[in-house]
Amino acid sequence: MASVNKVIIVGNLGRDPETRSFPNGDQVANVTIATTDRYKDKASGEMKEITEWHRVSFFGRLAEIAGQYLRKGSQVYVEGSLRTRKWTDKDGIEKYSTEIRADSMQMLGSRQGMGGGGSGGDDGGGYDAPPSRAAAAPRAPAAPRQAPAAPAKAASGFDDMDDDIPF
């Protein structure tokens, strides 16, 4: 039987990335990303928010890009997979933590305050492999990118639960 371990989140960084280098020269950047659901409480009629915090790890070239361009408050689109790690705390107690290992990342929102000046056309900041651009090749401004399409509603018994959730 086939299985799938795929995570897609769009959210905002809770703090600046923490970057480290391994002895072999590879890099890792760790961030926390907040995703917020807004909904209307059916009992009281008031709008409510629920925020989830996600730990995300970037490796290699993605770690370099995250460390250079992402800052607290940056909005990002991240695709990856869930990984659970086992570790021992300072008191010798074994603990587990689940995080997202990012396979690709796209910076969203404004480029102001993201650490890079960047001239020329803005291609939206999608990163999943090292760039391969021709040197000094003029190019037309890129068309604005659209947000990822929302998945179609499944025919489950839960469709009435999200009638009051604004998207």
Mean pLDDT: 77
| Multimeric state | single chain
For the terminal residues, how far apart are their CA atoms? 35 Å
The number of strands is 7
What's the story with the biggest beta sheet?
5 strands, mixed, barrel
* SS field, number of helical segments: 1
Strand order of the largest sheet: 1-3-4-6-5
Order of helices and strands: EEEEHEEE
- Rg is 19 Å
Helix fraction by DSSP (H/I, runs of at least 4): under 10%
Low-confidence stretches: 113-125, 129-140, 150-167
Q: What structural class results from the helix and strand content?
A: mainly beta
Q: What percentage of the residues does DSSP assign to strands (E)?
A: 35-45%
Shape: globular
Topology:
Layout: E1 7-13, E2 18-21, E3 27-40, E4 47-59, H1 61-69, E5 75-88, E6 94-108, E7 126-127
Overview of this protein structure:
By secondary structure, the protein is mostly beta strands. 5% of the residues lie in helices and 41% in strands. It is built from one helix and seven strands. The protein has one helix spanning 61-69; strands spanning 7-13, 18-21, 27-40, 47-59, 75-88, 94-108, 126-127. A five-stranded mixed beta barrel has the order 1-3-4-6-5. Strand 5 (75-88) and strand 6 (94-108) form a beta hairpin.
Task: Provide key terms for this protein.
five-stranded mixed barrel, 167 residues, 5% helix
Quick synopsis:
The protein contains one helix and seven strands; from the N terminus they run E-E-E-E-H-E-E-E. Strands 1-3-4-6-5 form a five-stranded mixed barrel.
